[in-house]
Amino acid sequence: MERKKLNIYVALLFVSLIFERVNCTTVTYDGKSIVIDGKRRVLQSGSIHYPRSTPEVWPELIQKSKEGGIDVVETYVFWNYHEPVRGQYYFEGRFDLVKFVKTVQEAGLFVHLRIGPYACAEWNYGGFPMWLHFIPGIQFRTTNDLYKNEMKRFMEKIVELMKEENLFASQGGPIILAQVENEYELVEWAYGVGGELYVEWAAETAVSLNTTVPWVMCRQTDAPDPIINTCNGFYCDGFKPNSPSKPAMWTENYVGWFSAFGYAIPYRPVEDLAFAVARFFEKGGTFQNYYMYFGGTNFGRTAGGPLTATSYDYDAPIDEYGFIRQPKWGHLRDLHMAIKLCEEYLVYADPVQLSLGENLEAHVFYKASNDCAAFLANYGSNSDATVSFNGKSYFLPAWSVSILPDCRTVVFNTAKVVTQKNLIDVVFPRKSNMIEYSLASSEWSWFKEKVGVWSNSSFITSRLLEQINTTQDSSDFLWYTTSINVDENSKVDKETKAFLLIQSLGHAGLVFVNKKLIGFSYGYHDDASFNFSGSIDLNHGRNTLDVLNMMIGLQNFGAWFDIAGAGLYSVIVSHSKNNSKEDLSSAEWTYQVGLEGESIGLDRIDLVNSTLWTKGSDLPTNQSLIWYKTTFYATDGKGPLSLNLSSMGKGQAWVNGQSIGRYWPAYISPSDGCTDNCDYRGSYDSNKCLRHCGQPSQILYHVPRLWVHKGVNLLVLHEELGGDPSKISFLSRVRHEICSVVSEDGIPPVDTWKPKTSLQQPQVRLSCEHGWLITSINFASYGTPKGDCGTFTAGICHKNVKPIIQQACIGNRECSVPVATAKLGDPCPNVLKSLAIEAVCTTTNP
User: Which tens digits make up the pLDDT trace of 689-736?
Assistant: First the structure.
């Protein structure tokens, strides 16, 4: 019996070892591509940062990425939240890195782990923990031994954690790439020889960790072997790695840009984004990553800055709330399928370049003289063209690339968008698409902050202190308090006029004289410093000056950004009666870190019934430094919620104790420079295509559904400037319009293409979110419809095909209709016709 048990154990062990070996993956690279288990691969990647969403929705986000043609999920690792105190680690909730990586693995995708540990990422302090700053003698991102020891220790921690969970490819896990440092080349000049030596050290340290997968350094021309240097930017088709033995990789392809308070909303047309991707692969690239594929939300105080907004939507293919953004998601999915059809050619040999005319060229990938794939490009931004290639004529719109997987048939053109559009605006949604839960009738309580010193934890110093070193980022707020004295014996009026000038390194400040608010000043994202100036009334004798200086995210980018300062650096009072100036910069100042409400913890659920809160029917509105509290009931549902804070000024908000981030709808963007119809042709930058000029950068704030529950929920706000909380509401999306228009001579769906077979017909394809259904058809015309999605009207040639479309689509999550007279009839023979459809998707479980 014992021998039998031993035999069974040995057999099980043998099977286990075989299974483990089978699932182990070898990852290397050569001059063409990443090589996985001996096979060169063309890989599409997308950035999803695990803390910018919640674990409950990770599977859905990753699955939507997979359905969009993504092979690899890329994420940073955020040191400041994983090690908030030196030696004390945190890997729970939104910061459960292991769970996130395993969730990607369960979906069958790979992971690129950007360990850094510097992230940038518009993340507070670039991802560095604040305690690092206070190590005596430390200098970040250079040959400083104190910094290198801490960086190596954290990298070892992350690598060992991944190894313990068998998450590297060689262990059967999904991690195929790792990254050390991040865009260091942009600041290396500032560190001199120390910067050059640091790059070498960082590379050696990464390799010594023995991850068994390749390491990359993005945007780092001097990355030493075997580290792969990669490209970041809006375009990378001209990028060449620093060694012929390394593949061309694009680690950050910006799908849009991040939002900042006081700025209009950037967006990037998908035609340009697809053009950039196609050009990269056309010229021999084999790995590219969208930054971001899902951007998400800067919950709490995670946003870096200064003045980076709470929304990190980024105009990504999956929007901040987890909904698919069309046509960006669908057009890129089709692009990925077209490139995948060319994979065996792309990894076989370098392309042969052919000139087809001015700003016109072809890149041909041959496996044999009669077996090839080709990319035809018109990289001019003004003129469309017809070119001759391989004995046939091809029409190329300006700023476009056509993909021919057999060197003959166009299966995709970057400028011809045939996928559906969704008529959704994440920033200012249509009310008809939302259910609104108003808080107008809610019972509110409030707590008024004291101006200036509020506890015995204050301290006195005879100079102006830099804010970050004083607060250690424990709070956004620092009170500066001093006195202005006017001679009581002077023969002047009871009150005297003076002029006050305050200069601050940033980011915003409220100014009080004799406990009365006299002004508010602030900077902006590109320069957070500000001045406050104005006349003030002073009494004879002692007057108080209180300044509440506010941080809106620590600097996250730039040379020596870790020592960038904030707070007041000069305060001067000019007395009008005697024309004298009084420099208060060296006066005696009293400092108070944070707010009383923060210290008490007014955002906590256990204080909901505290007597600290004032109740009453006379709700104080439009007051600065006031806390508000109410309760609300959330209806059943699974969809995310939005908190509409357009009636508020500036502050922070919490739902059931969870911080949904900073809000600032009072900061209006400039009124000019925007267009809803930005020309995609020509080089893109973050200022080219803007929306919502003259409006706040953000009025809706994402509340994950799982942060609320059935029954009573708690909402707490700290309002800094003044607003009306009674006008706040919650919104939930319950419907959205989708539409598409496809010509009968359009490109058929790329997934229907097969080599050496006749092509399928063009189709209109419509699709709702998972769990949503098409419930109505608002418009359907076959002929020559006019307008665009949302504004379609029937043309001169028109057939009402609504009954046909209703039969095909109503009650289904998705449907497709061939654009063909055999299916739709022929209202006008010998006329080129299009099929235009507008439909409505709804959910019964908002």
Answer: 999 999 999 999 999 999 999 889 999 999 999 999 999 999 999 999
Count of other CB atoms within 10 angstroms of residue 723: 26
The Cα 52–Cα 590 span in angstroms is 37
Element (H, E) at 802: helix 802-809
Sign of dihedral through CA atoms 334, 340, 342, 347?
A: positive
In SS3 terms, 681-731 reads as CCCCCCCCCEECCCCECCCEEEECHHHCCEEEEEEEEEECCCCCHHHCEEE
Do the beta carbons of residue 756 and residue 770 sit within 8 Å?
A: no
The verdict on whether 60 is a catalytic residue reads no
When pLDDT is averaged across residues 749-761 and rounded to a whole number, the result is 81
Helix (H) or strand (E) holding 162: helix 145-164
**Known catalytic residue at 160:** no
CB 714 within 8 A of CB 655: yes
At 101 the three-state DSSP class reads helix
Which residue is listed with tokens 């919490």?
654
Residue 287 gets the label, from left (phi > 0), alpha (psi -120 to 50) or beta, of beta
Strands (E), 135-213: 175-180
Cα(371)–Cα(164) distance, rounded to whole angstroms? 46
What confidence category does residue 21 fall into, taking pLDDT thresholds of 50, 70 and 90? very low
What pLDDT does residue 14 have? 45
Q: For 486-532, give the DSSP string.
A: E-TTSSS-SEEEEEEEEEESSSEEEEEETTEEEEEEE-BTTB--EEE
In order of their start, the domains of the chain are 31-347 (3.20.20.80), 350-416 (no CATH), 431-448+599-733 (2.60.120.260), 459-592 (2.60.120.260), 735-842 (2.60.120.740)
Instruction: For residue 459, give the H/E element and its range.
Output: strand 459-461
Q: Which amino acid is at 815?
A: C
**Which residue(s) pair with 461 in the sheet?**
589
d(CA 316, CA 259): 12
Judge whether 118 and 127 are in contact, CB under 8 Å. yes
Helical packing angle, 145-164 and 192-208, nearest 10°: 20
Cα–Cα distances (Å) from 433 to 330, 343, 741, 771, 788, in that order, read 22, 41, 22, 16, 19
Contact 556, 124 (CB under 8 A): yes
Task: Give me the catalytic one of 165, 183, 344, 744.
Answer: 183
Task: Copy the structure tokens of residue 795.
Answer: 């043309």
Number of CB atoms found within 10 A of residue 804's CB: 18
Name residues whose C-beta falls within 8 Å of residue 548's C-beta, 6 or more positions apart in sequence.
Answer: 451, 477, 478, 479, 480, 509, 510, 512, 625
CA–CA dist 532, 530 (Å, integer): 7
Residue 806 tokens read as 């209703």
C-alpha 370: how far from chain center = 44
DSSP string, 314-352: TT-SB-TTSPBPTTHHHHHHHHHHHHHHTHHHHTTSPPE
- Tell me the pLDDT tens digit for each residue of 552-591: 999 999 999 999 999 999 999 999 777 889 999 999 999 9
Is the distance from CB of 838 to CB of 778 less than 8 angstroms?
Answer: yes
Q: Which three-class secondary structure state does DSSP give residue 775? A: strand
Q: Which two tokens stand for residue 624?
A: 């600065």
The SS3 of residue 13 is helix
pLDDT at 846 over 90: no
Exactly one of 150, 181, 185, 252 is catalytic; name it.
252
Query: Which of helix, strand or coil describes residue 399?
Result: coil
Contact in structure between 153 and 90 (CB atoms under 8 Å):
no
Nearest one of 402, 302, 396, 384 to 95, comparing CA atoms: 302
Residue from 652, 671, 663, 736 nearest 699 by CA: 663
